[in-house]
Amino acid sequence: MRHDSDSIADSHGRVGVERWVDGDATRAEDMVAEEVPAALVYNGFSHAVMMTTPQDLEDFALGFSLSEGIINEARELYDLEVVEHPQGSEVQMRIAGERFAGLRQRRRAMAGRTGCGLCGVESLDQIAGRPLGTVDARRGALQAGALSRAQAELHARQHLFHLTGAVHAAAWCALDGAVELVREDVGRHNALDKLIGAVAANGGAFGDGFVLMTSRASYEIVQKAAAVGIAVVAAVSAPTGMAVRLAEAAGVTLIGFARGERHSVYSHPQRIH
Fold this sequence. Notes:
four-stranded mixed β-sheet; 7 helices
């Protein structure tokens, strides 16, 4: 079973820094998060190159494949291998033939596709082609105190953030707020894809928990959650208007400003008690 990462050695490094305090400068060392290109290759064809933190790339590739609708289930990803190159990483995947045919068709319609929301979409009509599910209204009811418990537990498990201050975290939480998995990345959507991949690899059911993000809730966060059937998305910062409208349409409970005992529910409040 895949748990939180045990090693983050490749995900940060030391750099020299000149620190200024009250007009005085001192030389010191600082920890910075690493950001490298990762090419996602399906059946020998490169689909996208993402800038990502070089940790949990297997989870990232699986989660991206699911949240972008490239595959429908984890079992449709047959093989996965991370190959390191001097200029970055390449994640080589073999997926079901039917899914690869669908991907090739999408590639012909959408040049320059990436995972950052609408990047690479060439016309407004193509927005309708984004993978979006309708979440089961019966799933995802949070227990009392779940949000505050999840926030407290997540803070203690943001290991790379505590070293660098430069990454977002996505947490998979049980409905009582217990944090089961955490993934971190310089990109908030990458962190969520890593989390989705980790949950899927562990055989988890996306309707039986919720996501807590240490970022704002933007369009692509809701889209990726809805695509795999996540019923509740909570974020410590604000949502965007498009994210709220998408959450309402997809049946997702969207929570913003989740801080301690306070939060704002923007859509489908019936799941919050």
